[in-house]
User: What shape does this take?
Amino acid sequence: MSSELCVIGCGDAFDAIEASHAAIDATRVWHFIRLDSTDEIQRGAEQKMAHLATSTVRMFAAVDAAALNHARFELYGKLRLLGYVGDTLIHPGAIVDPAAHLGENCWVGPLAQIGPGCRIAANTFIGAGARLDADVRVGMSAWIGAGSSLGRGAEIGNHSVIGNDARVARGVLVGRHCVLESPVHYRDAIADATFIHPDFPGTVRVYSPPPARRAPGRRA
Amino acid sequence: MRSRMPPSAYLSPEWFGRERDLLFRRLWLFAGLKTMLAGHNAFITRNICGIPVVLQNFNGELRAFENICLHRSAQLQWESVGRRPLLCRYHGWGYDANGAVSNIPLQEELYRFPEAEREAMRLRRFALRSVGNLVFINMDAQPLPFEEQFRAEFIESLESSSSAYDGEVITTTWKGHFNWKLAYENLRDANHPRFVHPQSLAKSVNFVAQVDDALVTEADIDPAPEQARAVRRALLQRFSWGGPDAALDRIIPYAWRDNVERWGNDDSYFNWLVYPNLHIASSDGGHSFIVEHHVPVNPERTDLEIYWMTATKRRLYPYSCTTLLSLMHESKVVLGEDVRIMEAVQAGLHDAAPRAIQGAYEAMNRLIERWYLDVMEHGGEI
Assistant: This one.
């Protein structure tokens, strides 16, 4: 593992990592680049790392769940395209079973528990005190809020946000691009692009037209 | 001037039943968005005037049927939006674009319907009209012509603006505890935003309530005469209008707006009021739209089915659904303020409540009341 790591971003996750970096790994050389807001990502924030060599420095994009985690995904993607390799950071107070697998640019907050057989795809953040039982699968660029729990075998789709203190029952499938902000117990499958928020008593859904069919024999 | 509307018009289940029969089952009503019906077998289901309705795409043709299987009365489509053939889950009866039974599994073995009887089996079909991206239906066996409910220039404006809606839509239902008529009365009251929305809508838009003297005189003619059909329809056309409503001081240049093809170039707040129960607005000069459908559930309950969409995308962008989510949260503030005030009005109503006192600027609502009561009291054709 590279001894140098640059954490770039803003928000609560960035603050938490900066505050606890010495406890995470006191032997590394840490760089912190704090962005004013996620707007900076669109304005070339990756250039702020230009002085750090891709061969010797790893990166960590630390941005909260803004725009269904697309803001963090955009920053992470830009840095990957520049040649940086992402790291994964686990707070020393978290418990991660050795048989769990985490992709790069994942953050596991303090007191979070990740059970055996869990597979967490890249760029997913797991908040403080979250509990993931055995064999949970979480897609790329997701956000698992503080204090939430995912029952054994639950699956969370790409870019979805599980709000603080929400509970997803054992084996429940949550689709892509979902936001489950109400801190309740979700016992049934949740379709792609579903938003459940305490401000909106009814379920909120996003519908998209089916993709246009290509003419036969033509390539994209 | 006292309102003509008795409190029972907002409270009575019997009155509500008459409204369904005399008004809603005769008028063209909004039923859904065409973009949600894209592709063969795409469908949406609704409950309109207590009747389950399915709108289904048959190879590009949109049709509206009663969503009930002719065999054992099971609903044919269950989900609110989906894509599957018009096929009953109970015993597998299938239906074609004309509502005819196209397949009865085990017909010869178990049912043995004579051919003539089978051919006569038809789902109840409703008239359907698409205007741009808006789909309307009429449940009357002999529907009034669409062009006699809405003026030509209004239809044109609806068609043009709704054709600009993007196909990605965020939707939810809000359960309001008020009578549906309070919604149209509130929407046609340009004097309420400064009091109900001082920290939200009224901060960015200055709606100006005006008095039309000729309209005041017309609306005050009393008692309401029993109207001939042509007069009723001419009046009805005037209850729906739309276009730029108020100038916007500025349009915030959010990044997502670069990704959509704005409808027009007018820096205005647009409103389209579609009688009886549809409201469409664009609060940002044609960059995005909200469609509010006020669905009467009972005299004191109205479901607000709401759709938000941007104007058509110029290019796909990855955070488009979060743009819709933020539009929803933004307009939820204004909508919440309206719902609270309408619920407060409803909560104050009782059988012996005094009738509302209306001012000159409320002449359009008075005219609608007169027309509405004429229909409710005398029946007859609209």
Remarks:
- Residues 267 and 285 of chain B are 5 Å apart (CA to CA).
- Chain B has a mean pLDDT of 94.
- The first strand of chain B starts at residue 29 and ends at 33.
